[in-house]
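User: Okay, second chain of the day. Same drill as before: sequence in, structure tokens out.
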Amino acid sequence: MISLQVKGMSCGHCVRAVEQAIRDMDADAGVNVDLGSGKVDVDSTKLGREQLVAAITEEGYEVTG
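Assistant: Same drill. Structure tokens below.
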């Protein structure tokens, strides 16, 4: 499980954009986005932290932790 702190998410569309960006790389990934805290948890055997950060950043959000 990889946990990331993401800034810039403010609505359901943001949550779906982050989830979709991750699932586009690994359709079987478990993704849990907590909009209130900005926490994104990803359970994937295919993706590493750097790949996740790149995908989320490409969507326009900032990974801070």
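Residues 9 and 35 are 7 Å apart (CA to CA).

User: Thanks, on to the next one.
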